[in-house]
Design goal:
By secondary structure, this protein is α/β, with parallel strands linked by helices. 41% of the residues lie in helices and 17% in strands. The strands form two sheets. Strands 3-2-1-4-7-5-8 form a seven-stranded mixed β-sheet, sandwiched between helices. It has a two-stranded parallel sheet with strand order 6-9. Belongs to the glycosyltransferase 2 family.
Amino acid sequence: MSDSIVIIPTYNERENIEKIIRKVFSLSHPFHILIIDDGSPDGTADIVKGLMIEYPNQLFIEERSGKLGLGTAYIHGFKWALTKDYEYVFEMDADFSHNPEDLVRLREACVNGADVAIGSRYINGVNVVNWPMGRVLMSYFASVYVRFITGIDIQDATAGFKCYRKRVLETIQLDKIKFVGYAFQIEMKFTAIKHGFKVVELPIIFTDRTAGTSKMSTKIFKEAFWGVIEMKIRSWFRKY
């Protein structure tokens, strides 16, 4: 039994999924993997199910019908992981924009005292590869905006590469996490900090996907922009 579970949400990731799974299982620490697939029509789930025969009791899948949002996928995965009593619960993309080898570093940060460890693109300058400049600037200034509105000292507020200690997910009321797009990532960090947990950032190099299609949309961006203000206002009336 591993103490660490990597949650990977998927929608149409057949070009990446086998490679990312095999890479995670090749690491020095024995991570388990939970795939949350939102009814990928390209057969992503079938590839995972085939690999589950090769990796019994290490690789798991939860299938959902339709695209229900990144945030709800992770909440589903968090609840699943808590029932299995994993101590370290990770978020990671399927497309290799997050280097699986950094999982070990994120886990070590939590073993050594952090409650949440973030793989940060901006803690040491800007470490993003293959993104157009417009998207880099949008992402970077989104974090500046989040710091200004919320007051939290996080350089990469929208980062989606993280390790949580179990106690963080047990304490946060997951059903009260409202947002489903990239605002979900901001809300989880904000809520953890408001509860008094120690959140640290580790520098990573983020490399844009080379296979498959990005899920970013204008709707997701708008949710993050207005959601930060709404989240801050709601926090004035909530006990942590």
